[in-house]
Amino acid sequence: MRSSARKRLSGLLAVNLLVLGASPVLAEDEHWRLFVAEHGDPVVHAIDLESDAAVGRFDIKAPASLYKSHSNRTVFAVQGDANLVTALGSGVEIEDHGDHNDLRVSEPELLKVTATGGKPSHFVEHDGRIAIFYDGEGRADIVTERRFLDGAEDQPASIKSAAPHHGLAAPLGDHVLISVPNPEDPSKRPIGLRVVDSAGEQVGPVHDCPGLHGEATSGDLLAIGCSTGVLVVEPGRGGPVVKHLAYGADLPEGSVSTLKGDTAIQYFLGNFGPGAVVLIDPSEDQAIRLVKLPTRRVDFAVDPVRSEQAYILTEDGRLHTLNILSGSLTASVQLTQPYGMDGHWRDPRPRLAVAGDVIAVTDPLKGLIRVVDTATLKETRTIPVAGRPYNIVAVGGSGASH
């Protein structure tokens, strides 16, 4: 449509709205909201980052790990000790209209539909579907976000493995990937990955992945950590194509067990032993690059807006910026008191979430969220939170507010 015609049409629409008594206000806006789970207590807080005000407190059944949906509309509280997954409506809705996004903000809410099963653990969303894996049953439920938002009580599709184990499942196209338990001792880490079709039938061989743990998506790729390397899975005409990226001989002893994927460019960031991370780019000849850290790692996050950056908090309480292209730490600041990595893995330690131009860092021993500028790593303010703020996700974005 030509500019002159578009102007005439815009004028006609404005006149019609005024005639109808409407106010044609269309302002560009950005809104971010934090969801924070307390350590040791069954509580999730919702906080608006624009005002730092608490906009919701949700009493659940057990301490939770938090996951946000790709749409940002739903936050899932996975409660392994309560055999339950609770869904929260974030109150932030971003609707894509091609040339612009519509942004609607409302109160967060506890949604009616839950997911139940023995000891839920890994939660993976891909291709519009969600896989929830229940360690206590060796079962995966395949659901959609719409099921929770619409309040539908339909039965989800389920896929069973050979035995209960600490595993995972991930949707990919019309298929589902599911871990294979150790046949000698299912309490140990899984040994591989199999692909099943929509009828639950296995497709192709089992793909070896000893010590399987950790997964992430980046675009249409899925990565899964193994003790021997990383499995990278992509869609293919006949089903998922699985490729094993072996750790290079130049890497020290270690393996990947936690992965984060970027949304804008296809790469993965993973842990590698206690004192390093790895950058994984399946398109490169040297697909796995090691980045040594000054001390042991506490948590890390990729930046969905500035794809060349990631952030790492180490046990000395320092926050670092990692340049993805160079593989080097480019900035570092003292942010919290030291959080030693000795002790139980579930001890209260900081967690990171990126929300637009800031990084939100929980500081459970101080009862704070520290808000840090992504460009300077300067702490701009703190937000007090009741209890010990622990797991955290950020939902939000920009769009036109009507």
Automatic annotation (TrEMBL):
Record organism: Skermanella stibiiresistens SB22
Name of the protein this chain belongs to: Uncharacterized protein
Keyword check for Signal: yes
Signal peptide annotation: 1-27
Keyword vocabulary terms for this entry: Signal
InterPro entries assigned to the protein according to its UniProt record, in alphabetical order: AztD-like (IPR047697), Haem_d1_sf (IPR011048), WD40/YVTN_repeat-like_dom_sf (IPR015943)
Keyword Hydrolase appears in the UniProt entry: no
